[in-house]
Amino acid sequence: MTQTTQFRVMDFDCPTCASNVERAIESTDGVESISVHYTTGRVEITYDEDAIEPAAFERMIENQGYTPQPA
Amino acid sequence: MLPNRLPSDWQRYYAQHRTAIVTVVTGLLYAGGWTLGAVTDADLAGAGVLVVATVIGGYDIAKHGYYELRNRTLGIKTLVTVAAVGAIGIGAYWEAAAVVFLFSLGSYLEGRTMRKTRSALEELLELSPDTAIVRRDGSQVEVPAREVRDGEIVVVKPGGKIPVDGEVVDGESAVDQAPVTGESAPVHKTAGDDVFAGTINTDGALEVRTTGTGSDTTLQRIIRRVEEAQEAQSPAESLIDRFASYYTPAILVLSIGAFAATRDAMLALTLLVIGCPGALVIGPPVSIVSAIGNAARNGVLLKGGAHLETAGKIDLVAFDKTGTLTKDETAVVDVTGFDCDADQVLRLAAVAEKKSEHHLGDAILEAATDRDDTTSIAADGGEPSGSRRPSSDMRSDGGAVATNPMPAGSGSVPDPDEFDVIPGKGVVASHDGNEIVVGNRALLAAEAIAVPDDVGDYVRERESDGETAVHVVRNGTVVGIIALRDELRDAAPDVVRSVKDAGIRTVMLTGDNERTAEAVARAVGIDDYRAELLPEEKQAAIEAFRDGETAGKSGHVVAMVGDGINDAPSLATADVGIAMGAAGTDTAIETADMALMADDLSRIPDAISLSKATRWNITENVAIAVLTVGLLLAAVLGNVVHLAGGMLVHEGSVLLVILNGMRLLRH
């Protein structure tokens, strides 16, 4: 089943930072699409819930050095 | 438990303020190391402290730089890391620490200011209350707002925020709708009025029947729309992003080339530091987000940066007449009978129009029932009274008619036996053996009904006053004229003047006849008008303005102001479609490029001026960025500026464009 989840990242400090998070997550198995918006800090991920847990995305965003908040 | 709580609080505090703490520590170490080296002879100790400062300040930067590389991108953090490591490598400890410190400070300030622009949206998010008091099984229970079901009655106390979208069923209060519509004055609400989640009930208790909760409220739709708008890339942004993806690698190649040619490591490293087009990439989005956030707070929804850029170029504004320049309440101002009693004329017309659902028909019906209520005329189908010509000129008070909101007594107007609506012309009906025709000149011509000269003169006279005159015909003879007027909005003349003062051409579009249009156009002081237009002709008129009306004249950038439903095709055809009174009508919010939440015409000059200011602001930001990069490149290649100086100017330019963009928040 395809699911969509959202996070808000308030500490992006440059547009490249946002696209880095996008690149890091989009290549993960189970992720169907991701959009990261620098200007609003909104991260929207569409994923296959049988392949990946939403908590994993939080860790991945943290791994890139940013703080995800629930949106 | 207590010992555990303290570290976790500290950890959270540290996580939240990490950049600030790291920046301060790096700054202190940097100052200490520099002092040691400069004031004492302890060069080695000073260098040591500077290296520690570089490592502490550079750790996060290097980590991000590593992620950038792993994602196969080349960003500023990678470049700064290479520059800092390189500087230590050639013994430039002071420069290494300075670069790291300045970069951290810059990032921290950038993050802080960006959060401020993002928070324009958060203010909207905080408006909606979390809980609602609902009447269930005879008692009042407090439940989470999103769990209220449609149709349930929500009780809103004075001073409380309204938690759901709905219709007032009981109570009376002034509601502060500023969060949704941007209107500064509270709006009086009684039974039958719509209210919006997130607005504030000021002085009376209200009971509201729920029509929307959770994400299905006007406020949530606004928030979603604002967010989408802020995320949509404008043409300028896409262009710059493409440029940026070539710029950084180009600088890298230049840096390696410079090192190969001059063997000057410092020069090569400095080039790396200025190799990120920071201000250029960050400038336009900050301008656009600030402008869209500002507009949203004032009740103007913008679809995106692209529309903002187009709106900044508007040089012609087309206004729809009815409901846009005029109030949405057409009222009968005069009924004149010709060889017929005025009350009788009104009554005949009311019967014919009873089922027409046209706004003029509604006004006639309202006037007729109002007459019934006040004078209680029982006569139905009575004989024409006397042979005065023209006869009793009955002035019915337009204001009194308008305040009668529901044609409650419309039951007293009998149904027509037969009726037929002729679009754009009027109605043909029969009742009690009489054939009744109510309509304009075109309808009478089509029905081959002669208009006596005195009637024709009278109609032209009323039209010259900006009124709409409707002929009432019984069995082939014109028996009377009903004059209707829609009042100009108070703000209309001022709005038209400010738009004209901004050097923009103004045009009015209307389905009304030439003379009425001319009179209204004169009253609002509009440049030009197009009358007797069918809806599709309005669209064609907009197209003509866009293409340039006459050969050899270039087209206009056209904005069209109208309501979101009837004028939807014209709004879509215009370069910028501006929908009025969009709160509550979702289609308007979805289709318009710019939606005014309130019926407030005076937002238009503000919105246009904000758009123009945004275009300027973006241009300024691009100019600042390009100039900075150009001058820096020249200065670095000319050996005037080195590592730390380059970093300082680079970070300074980024902050400058952010602060410049944020000016739009307070435009």
Automatic annotation (TrEMBL), chain A:
<protein>
    <submittedName>
        <fullName>Heavy-metal-associated domain-containing protein</fullName>
    </submittedName>
</protein>
<dbReference type="GO" id="GO:0046872">
    <property type="term" value="F:metal ion binding"/>
</dbReference>
<feature type="domain" description="HMA">
    <location>
        <begin position="3"/>
        <end position="69"/>
    </location>
</feature>
<dbReference type="InterPro" id="IPR006121">
    <property type="entry name" value="HMA_dom"/>
</dbReference>
<keyword id="KW-0479">Metal-binding</keyword>
<dbReference type="InterPro" id="IPR036163">
    <property type="entry name" value="HMA_dom_sf"/>
</dbReference>
<dbReference type="InterPro" id="IPR017969">
    <property type="entry name" value="Heavy-metal-associated_CS"/>
</dbReference>
<dbReference type="Pfam" id="PF00403">
    <property type="entry name" value="HMA"/>
</dbReference>
Automatic annotation (TrEMBL), chain B:
<keyword id="KW-0472">Membrane</keyword>
<dbReference type="InterPro" id="IPR008250">
    <property type="entry name" value="ATPase_P-typ_transduc_dom_A_sf"/>
</dbReference>
<keyword id="KW-1278">Translocase</keyword>
<dbReference type="GO" id="GO:0016020">
    <property type="term" value="C:membrane"/>
</dbReference>
<protein>
    <submittedName>
        <fullName>Cation-translocating P-type ATPase</fullName>
    </submittedName>
</protein>
<dbReference type="InterPro" id="IPR051014">
    <property type="entry name" value="Cation_Transport_ATPase_IB"/>
</dbReference>
<dbReference type="GO" id="GO:0019829">
    <property type="term" value="F:ATPase-coupled monoatomic cation transmembrane transporter activity"/>
</dbReference>
<feature type="region of interest" description="Disordered">
    <location>
        <begin position="365"/>
        <end position="418"/>
    </location>
</feature>
<dbReference type="GO" id="GO:0046872">
    <property type="term" value="F:metal ion binding"/>
</dbReference>
<dbReference type="InterPro" id="IPR018303">
    <property type="entry name" value="ATPase_P-typ_P_site"/>
</dbReference>
<dbReference type="InterPro" id="IPR023214">
    <property type="entry name" value="HAD_sf"/>
</dbReference>
<dbReference type="InterPro" id="IPR036412">
    <property type="entry name" value="HAD-like_sf"/>
</dbReference>
<dbReference type="Pfam" id="PF00702">
    <property type="entry name" value="Hydrolase"/>
</dbReference>
<feature type="transmembrane region" description="Helical">
    <location>
        <begin position="82"/>
        <end position="109"/>
    </location>
</feature>
<feature type="transmembrane region" description="Helical">
    <location>
        <begin position="267"/>
        <end position="293"/>
    </location>
</feature>
<keyword id="KW-0812">Transmembrane</keyword>
<keyword id="KW-0479">Metal-binding</keyword>
<dbReference type="Pfam" id="PF00122">
    <property type="entry name" value="E1-E2_ATPase"/>
</dbReference>
<dbReference type="InterPro" id="IPR044492">
    <property type="entry name" value="P_typ_ATPase_HD_dom"/>
</dbReference>
<dbReference type="InterPro" id="IPR059000">
    <property type="entry name" value="ATPase_P-type_domA"/>
</dbReference>
<dbReference type="InterPro" id="IPR027256">
    <property type="entry name" value="P-typ_ATPase_IB"/>
</dbReference>
<feature type="domain" description="P-type ATPase A">
    <location>
        <begin position="126"/>
        <end position="227"/>
    </location>
</feature>
